[in-house]
Structure formats: C-alpha cells, structure tokens
Amino acid sequence: MAQTDKDMLDDTALDAFFDAARSDIAAPSDALVSAILADAEAHQPQCGSHAGTAVDPGASRGFWADLVAAVGGWPSLAGMATATVAGVWIGFAAPIQLETMSGGLILTGDYTLADESYALEDLAPSYLGTSLLLEDEG
Amino acid sequence: MALDAYAEASDDALLVLYGNGDPMAAELLTRRLAPRVLGYGTRLLGGDRAEAEDVTQEAMLRLWKIAPDWRTGEAKVSTWLFRVVSNLCTDRLRKRRNVDIDAIEEPADDTPGAVDKMIQADRVAALQTALNALPERQRIAVTLRHIEGEANPEIAQIMDISIEAVESLTARGKKALATALAGQREELGYGTN
Q1: What are the domain boundaries of chain B?
Q2: Chain B partners of A7 at a C-beta cutoff of 8 Å?
Q3: Nearest to B35 among A20, A28, A48 (CB)
Q4: Model ipTM?
Q5: Which of these, B55, B79, B74, B80, lies nearest to B151 by C-alpha position?
Q6: Least crowded by CB within 10 Å, which of A67, B29, B69, B153?
C-alpha cells in the first residue's frame, strides 16, 4: 500500500511508457510485405467462385446436399420441420383447442364426450398393431 | 476505383472481398494489420524482430486461408489475428526455453528514481525489458490492454479466458511493471531522488 510512491510508478508515469510503446510503430519491411502479399495472391479464391475450379459444380455435392438445396437450403428445411411438428402436435393433442380457435367451424359436437370421440386406433388401426383388428373380427 | 474506395471498409468487409477474389483487399488488409501484428508479436517475443516477422507472415497466411470461410460479425479480424499471434508466439517461446515460463518470478527491484526525463526510445526499451520479465499470460494481457488498446471482452476472446481473469492478469501485470520500471530508473542512468 504505502510502497506506491517510492517503489512503484504511479499510473501516469506508467502510462508514459505505454504511450511510448504505442507510438513506436513497427513498420513491416518491404520484404515482409511482399511475402505476405505473395501468400495472399497464392491463396486467394478465384473471382466469383469459391470452388475455384471449372468442373461440374454439382458433381461434388451429395444426395442430401442436393435435397437441401432443392427445398431452398437449411432455413427452408427448418420451416418444414416446424410445420411438421406443429401438424403432429395438433393431430395428437389439440382437437378441443382447435375447436376453440376455429370458433366451431372446423369440428362440430362435443369432443370431450368419450362416446363421440375416436380413439387413435379407430383412425389408424395399424398404429397399435394388427392384434386389435383380429380381436374385432373374432 | 483505387484503394481510397476501400478506405472506409471494415476489416471484416475487406476480408470478405478478398475471399470473393478482390485483388485490392489483400493489400489494404496488409497495410492495416501487418504493423499491428508485427508490433504485438515483437513485444511478446521479447523484442526479437526477425522472429516476429516470421510470425506475422504465418498469421497473415492463416488469415488468407480462412477468408473463404470467414463469417462476418462473429469476431473482429484483429481479435482473431491477435489470438493466432498469441498462440504462435507462445509456441515459439516454449520451444526456445525448456523451463516453465509461467514460473518466472515477477521482478522485485524497488529502486526509486525519476523517469520524467527518459526519452521515448529508452522508455520503449525499458518497458520491453520489464515485459520480458512478466509471466507470459500477464505479458499478453497487459500488451493487449495497454499497448494494443484492446477491450477486456476482446482480450478474453483472444486468450480464451473470462473477463474477470483478464482484469486480474492486467492488474497484476501492471503492478509488476510499475515495480520493475521504478527499479530500472537507476540502471538506465536517470538517477534517483
């Protein structure tokens, strides 16, 4: 604590050293600049082409890359995935909410009553396996 | 469309231009960044200018290579470069010495004196000597903060540590420098009070 004055420089004095270092600009030699620019030229992609080659641009793409490109790239794919999930969710979980939101236009009747609602296996008998079908027939 | 047309462009934009095949962008980026990289590398390497030139060329080469994949807005070009230079210098210092450079003791010279009359070159040299004696991570943090003028969040990115750790390193480094430089005043012939 008390050593600041005698044993250490204060901030102002120290800043003078930093200022001096900051103004001591290191100018790269011409040889260094030339070497850097030669590297830049050697590694620069050709204008207008990231691949830098003249071969068939589709040849290197795989099936999935083609598929993603066909639907409009990853953003489109994300939108499709969201729509799919929303569809599944509505299908499984929300007939009542859907009824509410649609103001009774889409669905009619009271779907809270057990005898008027359909079970999943009524709509998709194969969902729980074929044993249910066999039971009904027997 | 001379270089002037690019003068206002950010480093980020210039790197994208370079990646798109623009022939002017590399020259302007080199003019802007190479002196900073060289200065920073020289300080980290204890004033070894020749080795710092090698590091500068290597760091810029890595920049050219990453240009086609550069994602704008994710990091500043200078921050990315400082990180590369820090790593390159650290590797070279470790090869140069077989001792654990983090274990170097902080200088404890406490000779008082007057620094006001030091001329600039002496100050630069004295500061470099004091920086050389700092533990490596303190040297990196202090150099980035107080000489290169980087902000703490950028230094945290460069060094891959927390902002609190940056603050701690710079505070300890600065204190060690203040002590060492106070001690060097007599050695440099500026007398004492």
Answers
A1: 9-98, 106-193
A2: 110, 112, 179, 182-183
A3: A28
A4: 0.82
A5: B79
A6: B69
Long-range CB pairs of A17-23 (<8 Å, 24+ gap) are A17/B115, A17/B123, A17/B124, A17/B126, A17/B127, A17/B177, A17/B181, A18/B127, A18/B146, A18/B147, A20/B120, A20/B123, A20/B124, A20/B127, A21/B43, A21/B123, A21/B124, A21/B127, A21/B128, A21/B147, A22/B147, A22/B149, A23/B120
- Considering the segment(s) B106-193 as one domain, its CATH architecture is Orthogonal Bundle (1.10)
Domain ranges of chain A: 64-93, 104-138
Look at A35 and B43 and tell me if their CB atoms are within 8 Å. Answer: no
Please determine, looking at this structure, whether the domain spanning B9-98 carries the CATH number 1.10.1740.10: yes
pLDDT single digits (tens) B73-98? 888 999 999 999 999 999 999 888 75
